[in-house]
């Protein structure tokens, strides 16, 4: 009996020690762990990546059909149309940010884990941006060709989307976190988030228009960078607090 | 008094429609905002009284 | 001084105390509101001189400007009250924050609507994408967002906390929105019409305006107290003191 019990006890003790070490895993590990897990999940559900891109393309296509296919006219509205469509595509993809984790219970695990929630929210937002914002940014120049955007605007369009879409994902995370516990979220989240997106839209479109008119865009890009930094610091905290509330209610 | 006659006051130098529309709508909205909480309180008290009476009957 | 403030702050957290004190304050504030708004309206409509450029249509200013001021300060108060409720878990602060939203939205709507009416004779159009009008419109959307979020939750506590977070996020965003909208407007159309670029108003014009602003604040105080008292009655209906109060009323 003794011979049998001792190794088992030792095993158990080691298990406990390992678990205690696990508790002391740094915030960085919590970040990378969440990142890896979410990336793997996205890799398995590839429609989450493709659908926003399809939406983006279709939404842009509607404008020439609905307004006018005139190249001169389209060139004028191209920047605005691309930005508005990118905004809506991001908005529609926000459901996937927390909804799945809420359904399978892993969101509660995140909230009760000893690591700062904001760090893990940041990892989730980063994954969301990698699978929606970044592809949108890469696809946008192609759609810009179809919208007859003047050549001078391409690099600026790309840069503004690169700076702006992470801000959209970050701010959107607050809305997604506030509504994750509710049954009908779609329209409500739109109502909460769209007004907050307006500054990004104004500066994103403004920069492209200035570039097309041959004016300097460094100022616009600097302001968009500043908005990104502000959102980077504050949005994960606000979204974390919102997640705690949503799970309690 | 800035105006010479009452009809001039109503006319507002040709802008009467705009001025009175603005004041009228604002007055309506303000009154609604005052009346609504008062009515709501009355309703709350009525509901609560009904509940109290029901509880007293059953006990 | 600080100690009395802290003591007052703590007592303010008791719904019962708030209910009693607001019951005593409401008549005074209501009387002040009625008096000031009546005096301001008559003064502004009948006695103030007409603007030399806009004529009598400028008299809309006496509701437009107070409504616009209130619209912004109510959002500010809502965010502060929400923050207090969030940090110190003070129930009364939650209720005050909730009671702010409907009147704030009304004020924003009045500011927008009177602005549009004023715009017709002045600018020749009901709506102009003027920077101030646009940021007011966005403020109205923010109010609607808070109200919609309030009603989406089943639990009153969660509703209060969630909308507190939303209004705090909104308060951080309002300056950014205002700045960007102002910047956007100057880019698209050089400032053709600006309400602010008038010569400084003479005293007989701005005095009634001041009276109206103070009157609107008093009216807001009355409505805020009425709504908060209703919230207290609803949430504390199980407590002894509310039951006692009700049996006295009947």
From TrEMBL, chain B:
Keywords: Cell inner membrane, Cell membrane, Cytochrome c-type biogenesis, Membrane, Transmembrane, Transmembrane helix, Transport. Its main location: membrane. It holds the Pfam family CcmD. It comes from the Bacteria. It is found in: Cell inner membrane. GO terms for biological process: cytochrome c biosynthetic process; cytochrome complex assembly; heme transport. The keyword Transport applies. One of its GO terms (cellular component) is plasma membrane. It is a single-pass membrane protein. InterPro entries: Haem_export_protD_CcmD, Heme_exporter_D. The chain crosses the membrane at residues 20-39. Required for the export of heme to the periplasm for the biogenesis of c-type cytochromes. Belongs to the CcmD/CycX/HelD family. This is Heme exporter protein D.
From TrEMBL, chain C:
Keywords: Cell inner membrane, Cell membrane, Cytochrome c-type biogenesis, Membrane, Transmembrane, Transmembrane helix, Transport. It is a multi-pass membrane protein. GO terms for molecular function: heme binding; heme transmembrane transporter activity. Its main location: membrane. Residues 10-188 form the Cytochrome c assembly protein domain. GO terms for cellular component: plasma membrane. One of its GO terms (biological process) is cytochrome complex assembly. It is found in: Cell inner membrane; Membrane. The chain crosses the membrane at residues 25-48, 60-88, 100-119, 131-153, 165-185, 205-226. PANTHER family: CYTOCHROME B_B6 PROTEIN-RELATED, HEME EXPORTER PROTEIN C. Required for the export of heme to the periplasm for the biogenesis of c-type cytochromes. This is Heme exporter protein C. It comes from Oceanospirillum linum.
């Amino acid at each position: 009996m003794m011979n049998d019990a001792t190794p088992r006890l030792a095993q158990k003790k080691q298990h406990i020690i390992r678990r205690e070490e696990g508790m002391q895993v740094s915030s960085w590990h919590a970040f990378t762990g969440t990142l890896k897990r979410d990336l793997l999940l996205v890799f398995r559900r590839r429609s989450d990546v493709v659908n926003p891109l399809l939406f983006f393309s279709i939404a842009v296509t509607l404008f020439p059909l609905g307004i006018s296919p005139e190249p001169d006219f389209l060139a004028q509205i191209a920047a605005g149309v691309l930005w508005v469509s990118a905004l809506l595509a991001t908005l529609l993809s926000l459901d996937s940010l927390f909804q799945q984790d809420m359904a399978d219970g892993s969101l509660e695990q995140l909230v009760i884990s000893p690591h700062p929630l904001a760090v893990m929210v940041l990892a989730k937002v980063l994954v969301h941006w990698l699978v929606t914002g970044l592809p949108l940014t890469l696809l946008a120049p192609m759609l810009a060709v179809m919208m007859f955007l003047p050549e001078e605007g391409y690099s600026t369009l790309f840069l503004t989307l690169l700076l702006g879409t992470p801000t959209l994902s970050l701010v959107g995370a607050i809305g997604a976190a506030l509504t994750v516990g509710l049954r009908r979220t779609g329209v409500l989240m739109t109502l909460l988030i769209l007004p907050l997106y307006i500054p990004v839209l104004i500066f994103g479109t403004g920069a492209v228009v200035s570039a097309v008119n041959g004016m300097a865009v460094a100022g616009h890009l600097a302001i968009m960078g500043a908005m990104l930094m502000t959102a980077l610091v504050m949005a994960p905290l606000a979204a974390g607090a919102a997640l705690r509330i949503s799970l309690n209610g | 008094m800035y105006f010479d006659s009452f009809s001039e006051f109503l006319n507002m130098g040709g802008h009467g429609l705009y001025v009175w529309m603005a004041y009228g709508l604002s007055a309506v909205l303000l009154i609604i905002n005052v009346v609504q909480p008062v009515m709501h309180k009355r309703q709350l008290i009525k509901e609560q009284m009904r509940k109290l009476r029901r509880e007293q009957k059953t006990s | 001084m600080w100690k009395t403030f802290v003591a007052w702050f703590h007592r303010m957290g008791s719904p019962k105390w708030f209910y009693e004190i607001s019951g005593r304050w409401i008549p005074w504030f209501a009387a002040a509101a009625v008096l000031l708004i009546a005096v301001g309206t008559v003064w502004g409509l009948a006695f103030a001189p007409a603007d030399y450029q806009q004529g009598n249509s400028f008299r809309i200013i006496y509701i437009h400007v107070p409504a616009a001021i209130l619209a912004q300060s109510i959002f500010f108060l809502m965010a502060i009250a929400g923050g207090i409720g969030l940090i110190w878990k003070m129930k009364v602060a939650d209720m005050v924050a909730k009671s702010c939203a409907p009147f704030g939205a009304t004020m924003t709507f009045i500011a927008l609507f009177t602005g549009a009416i004023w715009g017709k004779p002045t600018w020749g159009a009901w709506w102009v994408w003027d920077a101030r009008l646009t940021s007011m419109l966005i403020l109205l959307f923010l109010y609607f967002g808070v109200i919609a979020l309030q009603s989406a939750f089943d639990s009153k506590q969660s509703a209060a906390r969630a909308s507190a977070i939303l209004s705090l996020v909104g308060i951080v965003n309002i300056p950014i929105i205002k700045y960007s909208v102002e910047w956007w407007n100057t880019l698209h159309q050089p400032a053709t019409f600006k309400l602010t670029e008038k010569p400084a108003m003479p005293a007989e014009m701005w005095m009634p305006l001041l009276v109206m602003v103070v009157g609107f604040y008093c009216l807001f105080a009355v409505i805020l107290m009425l709504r908060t008292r209703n919230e207290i009655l609803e949430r504390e209906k199980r407590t002894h003191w509310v039951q006692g109060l009700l049996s006295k009323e009947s």
